[in-house]
């Protein structure tokens, strides 16, 4: 089941409609979807994967959703402890795999995916082919993708469960699965398709509550599922103009290439892919579908339907393994492609492999990418003299078959075609030029992998002679990479790529000043004029006419449009230039050869722009296309969308309304949403920069600058200042500055819940030059009326006047469960009660388009009481101990969604324990005396008991039976069944009360976001409820301090979390729901932790983050006082004060002759800041550092002990280069790539010339590919259970779906590729592993940044696979690169560095560079001892590696010493009889023998002199296999050999346990259930085979 023809077509269509450019800015990867609550109270030993597995049915929680798919997982915990795992269990610690209990590992799939056959069928049928060809797209060009049509045969329709509801509404017998007409419609054509089906995740919709009776809901048996065919758009739809005919024809022709070389990359890629994967048949079974536990959050006894299980919305889905019994298979038969011959002018005919599903358009694309035909853009394809329609699918063309001849026929030009042609030629000339990537335009970004692999990965690499490789390797790393080096050069960050010295083809190619042609020349067919200077210095004028390009007689000053003699008329500009310039001819063809050899991932555009913080000095070349783009400022509409700007709001909302009943529909919808979002983000960023640079006229020009608002390209821009005292009570400008990011978080959350009928605005927050700009799409009609009239829900004056509206209440109620928001009443100014289901600030406006919009979502989440002192409110003890509550600068501090989720998860566990405890007490009482009634344990006792039970491990085990009872009980009570005895009801009621649930009969915790909101009043009637809510908020604030922060520190101690820089630390905090304002507390907590030395790296990152964040706050206000002409001087002055050792840097004000005095006085108010324009120049280093320390104290409550950069570096052991990187990334500054001397006391470090640019820092919504993500999770779960093959299938599938939604470049695809590579490697397919990992590295460099910690990880994995493929020198180069990046980003003293150095040492050992190898291995040993403790198994392994090298050097004494150390650790940790201890003792014996033999020989020599007879000693170079084995061990890959018999036993055991659980489930009475559970506990417990790696926290 691959992304098939369907997705292909859809994708093509959406491409045309929504032109994309789009990157996931690394600092901003926070997800739309909530991340998992990793609270420390969720039993800490539960690995994270297990925690993500099932908790929330309605919200997909997962780190992964963050860039956290990316999250690197734990280091291999020493493998010596992988005892007891039976099964070919392959341990993969380092990749995204985490051990998880099989029971929880099944992931929550949307119902129709989990619905067994039905889901699979509609998945297969709609997705067409199992062709995992990555389909990449680019602005508006649909590229060649290779799909094969498939027929889907239903595997024998098994009996349907009685009462199963047939799924798959969209598949009637004969009709295709969905009509594309609506989808094709250009959103601008006014077509709106409303009433889409609810998303699989939307709470309260049938899809999220599979009926209990239908364990699976298979399709009506053997319904023939017709393959979907995009060719069959109904004629009516076409003619209606809503389909391809009207709006879309035009786009595609131009869609050919607005950025051609990239588009060609895609075409190339899909071709390669196609040849690689010719899969004939595939069987795929899907992961288990969890059944819901019915403790609904919220809906009281009445809402829940009798007899149906509703998944409890507050989460805690427990998937039951037994569900998996009847997984069904789908067999997919491939329909093959065919070959056609292409005959183009001037070259030999050639063959091309095509697929029946392809459009003619895609052949165009391939031709524009091929080296020999790339210079043609204006042509048609003809078969037997008939012109083929660009949008026709090949299978619909009569007479087109194997071997047909297609002729390329040159067509006459129009002005538009001529411009496209010139643009395409310019793109080809620039295709290797990196300047766009350095300048951060057009979604280009940098990649340096090819510099280190010298292009010899994969196929070309295998052809190298392997035998001779040993001799040629030069292993010496550059000086600065060696352990202990203090030098941190910057230039090595962006090594010069040989290809970048582009071959110069022309000196100048530009539009002529004689454009446009006068009327009389127009009538001769002149379209436009070009001016060219060749490398030979010949100046020529060229006419573009309808028939092609020719030389005319004009000069720079004389207009003479007559053709020159000879005119050399050519249809393509390249052909003309080839004739007039020999150098052009030679260099252009060389350039195209190089272009075609590059990896496609190096040139595809990323989805969001990535900016580089350093760049070399690039000379500025003349470029007509760039100049034209800058001034005509393509307002986000590409040339081929006919003459209007895009209506962003309409596009954003229309894509949300697309149907989503089944997989193909959802893919199409998610893809459209993603594309529009990335386009909107790019347009909003351009607009925000234009606004701050003063290039946009305000809509209220007469008001003062701070209050101005702007509209540009249908986007509304406002500045982050407190206009009209809106935020007077909340902290004024400071509050106005944070409100937009809070609002954006609200938008993300509501988008993620995705309730049908509720709309949010497109929102992007841009920080640029010290200002914060909010960009929003415009609600239709809002500008024509006053806000007071428009708002029909919520309040515009923070709670004085409040209104409500039944429709809004109904819509918001659907979001209240997943978001844990409580419906509540507030009083308005007339003392009337108004019911709300959000905070009062949240406003509801019905647009002129009739849609219900919500905006101002800045208080979606409850307030953080630690930073909101309220008179008369007492905070819990834990908070007071840590100095809370603390006055913050503003009153908009909210808890993060992750915290709310973790808190609820924590309370749920408490609830279960309390109830179980009481049930057991009841039982005990019954047994003691049947006469005694009930153990009257009050809720308070309950709580106390539960705490006790947590501490005494023994009790928790007893609880197991109790917990099962509680679940069953809660289900029955929830379904309001009269059969429950009152005592049991009482138990649940007590437990609910104890944990603060708002319902008596089920666990349901929600927050009221208006509590403690200034100006909001509550009616008397809800007094008690408000008290409870206040208590809940206090508990949550205390939970953050007492559980989450210690939990984070504990994870850092265990090395399950390994941040390397500020961004990764922030991400780790955010995943646990800890806001950055707690950073000071976290650092303090670390400082007081007993194992402080083992947290050194975290402490260092924390301090540098405190310093750079405080500096960023100061820099923001500093920049606001600077006018444009002084920008580079001001920034370099700030950096000198911040980092240079030079005591008194002087700022250079802009030269006087440029600053006219008179003009300044008049234009004073233009400057947005209120400071005098030169105030910045007087800053001194002492003053700046004083401000940094006071900012750190005021904002983060942390006392920094430093008065200058030197002191900070000294005191906290920081690197100035690291601080420079952090501050540049946070502020968007780009500096010149050169070596900076920070420590000179004689001249400042930076000059104005070193500041190259300042970029915006952009925060935006990241739409998700939900289905792909479910597949990815299921794949992970399968792998964790040891089913590698199935896991691999699922992850391949996820990769296809990700490509379908995101295009080729995205962080989540990167994670997918990394995991695939790891699986390929484990399953022994080294070359496939290499190819996938190479893509992962390229993608990580392009999407996250070349020195992002993730990229460093990817480099390490790639080095391992290179070594396995015997590419030793490449492996070393990659490891050296990773080490360099790590030194730059953090420095040497990091636990990850130990792993890296072990890798380098092992490879060097393998190539017999013993002395070098020892330097790295001994450094690794030192670091491991520091971070893991000298007694850990990691250190024992390290000792062993060092001993091996000493053995190779024949220094047996040192070898013995190290091996003894290792032996002692093994003996103490694992005992005498562990195999590791035995191995070590064997090795010790061997070393002793060798040492004795050597000593004998030496004695012999002393005694007998030169004629001694010498026994030959064995000095062995290590074998590659043994080195690889050690590499696998340290990188956490472990192969356990198993016999077939073991496997059989294992499978039998697993099945037996599953049947057992089945029987437990089906047992209806409590007693039956208890018995089964007791039997189960009585069995000898077998070590769970489902866990591929036992991770010891060494």
Q: Largest beta sheet: what is the strand line-up? A: 5-4-8-6-7
Could you report the average pLDDT, rounded to the nearest whole number?
76
Shape verdict: globular
DSSP summary, beta strand count: 27
Roughly what percent helix? Answer: 40-55%
Measured between the Cα atoms of the first and last residue, the distance is: 42 Å
State the low-pLDDT regions, or none: 1-7, 9-268, 270-334, 459-471, 634-643, 931-960, 1153-1167, 1563-1594
Instruction: Indicate the structural class.
Output: alpha+beta
> Beta-sheet strand percentage?
5-15%
What is the overall number of helices?
Answer: 52
Largest sheet at a glance? 5 strands, mixed
SSE diagram, text form:
Elements: H1 5-17, H2 48-53, E1 91-92, H3 102-105, H4 111-114, H5 116-127, E2 150-154, H6 181-184, H7 235-239, H8 244-255, H9 260-276, E3 330-334, E4 338-343, E5 350-354, H10 360-369, E6 379-383, E7 386-387, E8 405-410, H11 415-429, H12 435-439, H13 449-453, H14 458-462, H15 469-472, E9 506-511, H16 519-522, E10 526-534, E11 539-545, E12 548-552, H17 573-580, H18 582-597, E13 614-615, H19 624-632, H20 648-657, H21 663-692, E14 709-712, E15 715-719, H22 732-753, E16 758-759, E17 763-768, E18 771-777, H23 787-790, E19 791-793, H24 806-819, E20 824-827, E21 833-836, E22 843-846, E23 852-855, H25 877-881, H26 897-928, H27 939-951, H28 953-974, H29 982-995, H30 1023-1053, H31 1062-1071, H32 1079-1088, H33 1096-1120, H34 1127-1139, H35 1157-1162, H36 1181-1196, H37 1205-1212, H38 1216-1227, E24 1229-1232, E25 1251-1254, E26 1257-1260, H39 1266-1280, H40 1284-1302, H41 1307-1322, H42 1326-1343, H43 1349-1364, H44 1368-1385, H45 1391-1406, H46 1410-1428, H47 1433-1448, H48 1452-1470, H49 1475-1504, H50 1520-1530, E27 1533-1534, H51 1540-1562, H52 1566-1578
Parallel strand pairs: 4-8, 13-24, 16-23
Antiparallel strand pairs: 1-27, 2-3, 4-5, 6-7, 6-8, 9-10, 10-11, 11-12, 14-15, 15-18, 17-18, 17-26, 19-22, 20-21, 22-23, 24-25
């Amino acid at each position: 089941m691959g992304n098939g023809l369907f997705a292909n077509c859809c994708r093509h269509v959406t491409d045309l409609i929504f032109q994309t450019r789009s990157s996931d800015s690394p600092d901003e990867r926070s997800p739309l979807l909530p991340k998992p609550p990793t609270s420390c109270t969720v039993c800490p030993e539960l690995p994270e994967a297990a925690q993500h597995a099932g908790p929330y049915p309605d919200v997909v929680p997962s780190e992964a959703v963050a860039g956290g798919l990316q999250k690197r997982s734990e280091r291999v915990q020493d493998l010596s402890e992988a005892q007891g795992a039976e099964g070919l269990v392959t341990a993969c610690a380092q990749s995204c795999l985490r051990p998880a209990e099989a029971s929880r590992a099944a992931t929550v799939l949307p119902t129709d995916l989990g619905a067994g056959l039905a889901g699979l069928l509609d998945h297969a049928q709609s997705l067409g082919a199992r062709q995992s060809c990555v389909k990449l797209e680019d602005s508006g060009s649909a590229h060649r993708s290779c799909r094969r049509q498939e027929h889907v045969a239903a595997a024998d329709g098994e009996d349907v469960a009685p009462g199963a509801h047939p799924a798959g509404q969209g598949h009637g017998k004969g009709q295709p699965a969905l009509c594309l007409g609506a989808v094709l419609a250009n959103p601008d054509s006014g077509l709106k398709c409303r009433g889409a089906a609810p998303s699989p995740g939307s709470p309260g919709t049938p899809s999220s509550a599979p009926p209990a009776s239908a364990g699976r809901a298979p399709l009506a048996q053997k319904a023939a599922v017709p393959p979907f065919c995009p060719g069959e758009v109904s004629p009516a739809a076409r003619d209606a103009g809503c389909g391809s005919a009207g709006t879309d024809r035009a786009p595609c022709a131009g869609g050919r290439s607005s950025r051609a070389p990239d588009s060609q990359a895609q075409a190339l890629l899909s071709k390669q892919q196609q040849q690689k994967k010719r899969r004939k048949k595939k069987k795929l079974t899907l992961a288990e579908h969890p059944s819901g536990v019915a403790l609904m959050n919220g809906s009281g006894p009445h809402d829940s339907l009798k007899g149906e299980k509703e998944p409890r919305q507050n989460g805690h889905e427990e998937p039951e393994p037994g569900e998996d019994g009847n997984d069904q298979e789908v067999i997919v038969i491939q329909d093959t492609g065919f070959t056609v011959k292409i005959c183009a002018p001037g070259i030999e005919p050639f063959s091309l492999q095509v697929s029946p599903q392809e459009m003619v358009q895609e052949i165009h694309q391939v031709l524009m990418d091929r080296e020999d035909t790339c210079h043609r853009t204006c042509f048609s394809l003809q078969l037997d003299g008939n012109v083929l329609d660009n949008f026709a699918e090949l299978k619909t063309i009569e007479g087109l078959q194997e071997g047909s001849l297609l002729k390329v026929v040159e067509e006459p030009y129009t002005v538009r075609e001529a411009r496209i042609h010139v643009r395409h030629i310019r793109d080809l000339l620039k295709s290797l030029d990196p300047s766009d990537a350095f300048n951060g335009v057009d979604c280009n970004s940098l990649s340096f992998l090819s510099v280190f692999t010298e292009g010899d990965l994969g196929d070309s690499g295998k052809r190298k002679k392997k035998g001779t490789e040993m001799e040629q390797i030069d292993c010496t790393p550059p000086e600065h990479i060696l352990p202990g080096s203090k030098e941190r050069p910057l230039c090595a960050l962006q090594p010069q790529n040989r290809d970048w010295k582009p071959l110069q083809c022309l000196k100048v190619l530009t539009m002529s000043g004689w454009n446009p042609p006068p009327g009389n020349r127009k009538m001769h067919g002149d379209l436009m004029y070009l001016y060219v200077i060749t490398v030979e210095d010949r100046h020529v004028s060229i006419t573009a006419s309808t028939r092609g390009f020719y030389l005319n007689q004009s000069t720079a000053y004389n207009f003479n449009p007559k053709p020159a003699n000879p005119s050399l008329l050519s249809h393509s500009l390249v052909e003309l230039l080839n004739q007039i310039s020999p150098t052009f001819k030679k260099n252009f063809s060389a350039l195209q050869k190089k272009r075609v050899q590059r990896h496609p991932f190096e040139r595809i555009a990323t989805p969001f722009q990535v900016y580089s913080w350093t760049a070399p000095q690039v000379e500025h070349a003349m470029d007509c296309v760039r100049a034209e783009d800058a001034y005509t400022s393509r307002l986000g509409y590409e040339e081929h969308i006919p003459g209007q700007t895009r209506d962003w709001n309409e596009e954003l909302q229309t894509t949300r309304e697309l149907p989503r009943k089944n997989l193909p529909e959802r893919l199409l919808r998610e893809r459209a949403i993603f594309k529009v979002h990335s386009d909107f983000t790019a347009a909003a960023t351009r607009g925000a920069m234009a606004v701050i640079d003063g290039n946009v006229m305000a809509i209220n020009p007469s008001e003062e600058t701070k209050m101005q608002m702007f509209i540009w390209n249908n986007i509304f821009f406002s500045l982050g200042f407190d206009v009209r005292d809106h935020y007077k009570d909340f902290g004024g400008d400071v509050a106005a500055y944070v409100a937009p990011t809070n609002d954006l978080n609200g938008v993300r959350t509501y988008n993620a819940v995705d309730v049908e009928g509720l709309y949010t605005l497109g929102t992007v927050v841009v920080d640029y030059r010290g200002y914060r700009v909010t960009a929003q799409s415009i609600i239709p009609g809002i500008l024509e009326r006053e806000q007071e009239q428009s708002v029909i829900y919520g309040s515009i004056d923070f709670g004085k006047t409040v209104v409500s509206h039944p429709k809004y209440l109904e819509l918001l109620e659907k979001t209240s469960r997943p978001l844990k928001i409580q419906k509540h009443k507030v009083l308005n100014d007339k003392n009337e009660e108004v019911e709300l289901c959000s905070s009062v600030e949240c406003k509801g406006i019905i647009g002129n388009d009739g849609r219900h919009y919500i905006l101002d979502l800045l208080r979606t989440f409850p307030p953080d009481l630690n930073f909101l002192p309220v008179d008369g409110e007492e905070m819990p003890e834990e908070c007071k101990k840590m100095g809370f509550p603390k006055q913050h600068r503003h009153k908009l501090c909210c808890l993060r969604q992750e915290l709310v989720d973790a808190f609820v998860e924590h309370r749920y566990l408490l609830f279960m324990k309390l109830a179980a405890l009481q049930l057991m007490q009841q039982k005990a009482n019954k047994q003691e005396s049947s006469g005694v009634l009930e153990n009257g344990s009050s809720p308070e006792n309950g709580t106390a008991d539960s705490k006790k039970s947590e501490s005494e491990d023994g009790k928790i085990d007893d609880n197991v039976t109790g917990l099962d009872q509680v679940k069953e009980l809660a289900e029955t009570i929830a379904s309001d069944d009269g059969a429950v005895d009152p005592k049991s009801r009482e138990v649940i009621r007590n437990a609910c009360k104890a944990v603060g649930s708002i319902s008596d009969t089920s666990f349901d915790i929600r927050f009221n976001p208006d509590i403690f909101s200034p100006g909001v009043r509550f009616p008397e009637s809800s007094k008690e409820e408000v008290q409870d809510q206040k208590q809940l908020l206090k508990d949550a604030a205390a939970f953050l301090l007492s559980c989450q922060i210690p939990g984070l520190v504990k994870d850092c101690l265990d090395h399950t979390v390994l941040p390397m820089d500020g961004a990764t630390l922030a991400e780790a905090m955010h995943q646990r729901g800890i806001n950055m304002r707690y950073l000071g507390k976290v650092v303090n907590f670390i400082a007081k932790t007993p194992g402080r030395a083992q947290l050194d790296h975290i402490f260092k990152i924390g301090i540098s983050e405190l310093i750079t964040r405080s500096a960023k706050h100061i820099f923001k206000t500093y920049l606001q006082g600077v006018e444009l002409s002084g920008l580079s001087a001001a920034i370099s002055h700030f950096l000198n004060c911040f980092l240079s050792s030079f005591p008194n840097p002087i700022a250079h004000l802009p030269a006087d002759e440029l600053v006219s005095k008179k003009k300044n006085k008049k234009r004073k108010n233009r400057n947005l800041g209120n400071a005098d324009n030169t105030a910045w120049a007087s800053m001194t280093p002492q003053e700046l550092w004083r401000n940094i320390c006071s900012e750190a104290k005021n904002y983060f409550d942390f006392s920094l002990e430093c008065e200058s950069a030197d002191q900070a570096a000294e005191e906290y052991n920081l690197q100035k280069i690291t601080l420079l990187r952090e501050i540049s990334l946070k502020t968007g500054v780009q500096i010149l790539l050169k070596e900076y001397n920070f420590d000179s006391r004689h001249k400042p470090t930076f000059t104005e010339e070193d500041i190259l640019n300042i970029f915006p820092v952009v925060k935006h919504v990241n739409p998700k590919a939900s289905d792909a993500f479910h597949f990815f999770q299921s794949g992970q779960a399968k792998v964790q259970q040891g089913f590698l093959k199935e896991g691999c299938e699922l992850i391949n599938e996820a990769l296809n779906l990700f490509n379908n939604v995101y295009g080729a470049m995205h962080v989540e695809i990167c994670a997918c590729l990394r995991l695939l590579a790891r699986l390929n490697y484990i399953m022994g397919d080294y070359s496939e592993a290499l190819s996938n990992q190479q893509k992962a590295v390229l993608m990580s460099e392009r999407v996250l940044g070349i020195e992002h910690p993730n990229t460093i990880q990817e480099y390490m994995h790639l080095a391992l696979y290179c070594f396995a493929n015997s590419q030793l020198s490449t492996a070393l180069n990659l490891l050296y690169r990773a080490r360099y990046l790590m030194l730059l980003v953090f420095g040497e003293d990091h636990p990850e560095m130990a792993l890296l150095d072990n890798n380098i040492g092992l490879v060097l050992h393998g190539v017999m560079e013993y002395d070098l190898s020892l330097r790295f291995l001994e450094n690794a040993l030192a670091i491991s001892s520091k971070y893991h403790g000298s007694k850990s198994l990691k250190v024992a392994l390290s000792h062993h590696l060092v001993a091996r090298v000493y053995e190779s050097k024949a220094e047996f004494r040192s070898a013995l010493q190290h091996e003894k150390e290792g032996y002692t650790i093994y003996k103490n940790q694992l005992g005498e009889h562990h195999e590791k201890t035995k191995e070590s003792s064997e090795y010790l014996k061997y070393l002793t023998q060798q040492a004795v033999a050597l000593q004998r020989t030496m004695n012999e020599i002393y005694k007998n002199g030169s004629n001694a007879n010498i026994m030959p000693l064995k000095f062995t170079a290590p074998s590659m296999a043994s080195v690889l084995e050690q590499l696998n061990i340290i990188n956490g890959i472990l192969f356990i050999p198993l016999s077939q018999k073991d496997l059989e036993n294992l499978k039998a055991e697993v099945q037996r346990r599953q049947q057992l659980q089945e029987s437990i489930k089906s047992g209806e009475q409590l007693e039956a259930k208890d018995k089964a559970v007791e039997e189960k506990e009585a069995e000898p417990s077998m070590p769970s085979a489902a866990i591929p790696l036992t991770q010891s926290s060494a």
